[in-house]
Amino acid sequence: MRKQILVVDDELSILKLLNFILSKDYDLVIKQNGADAISWLEDGNDPALIISDLEMPYIDGGSFIRNLKISGFYRDTPVILLSGADNLDNIVSSMPFQADCYFKKPFNPAELKSSILEALLYSDVKNN
């Protein structure tokens, strides 16, 4: 069965790229901001992994992921962060939660795919 990935990013070019490189292997649900993503999750959806941009309108990626991690239900859902911020290492290290990995835009698609596979495999082992 194909795994479902929630992709949250407000940049259309990034969404198109992620759709192109991931849709052959995964079912993608695409949301353009954290508020829409939270609404989708509150409807009872449970993705295998979440890819989120950090800088978005309405609810930024950091707040979105922090809310997920403290909710309890999505605490163990793997998270991959994307950002164009120059100081991404500092931003990630100061967050009150830990992402499974993060990538600075522009990112290497092969490295992202490898990190997704690794995060999903680790999550499957951890949850079984």
From TrEMBL:
The keyword Phosphoprotein applies. Keywords: Phosphoprotein. SUPFAM superfamilies: CheY-like. Transmembrane segments: none annotated. Pfam families: Response_reg. GO terms for biological process: phosphorelay signal transduction system. PANTHER family: RESPONSE REGULATORY DOMAIN-CONTAINING PROTEIN, STRESS RESPONSE REGULATOR PROTEIN 1. This is Response regulator receiver domain-containing protein. The lineage of its organism: Bacteria, Pseudomonadati, Bacteroidota, Sphingobacteriia, Sphingobacteriales.
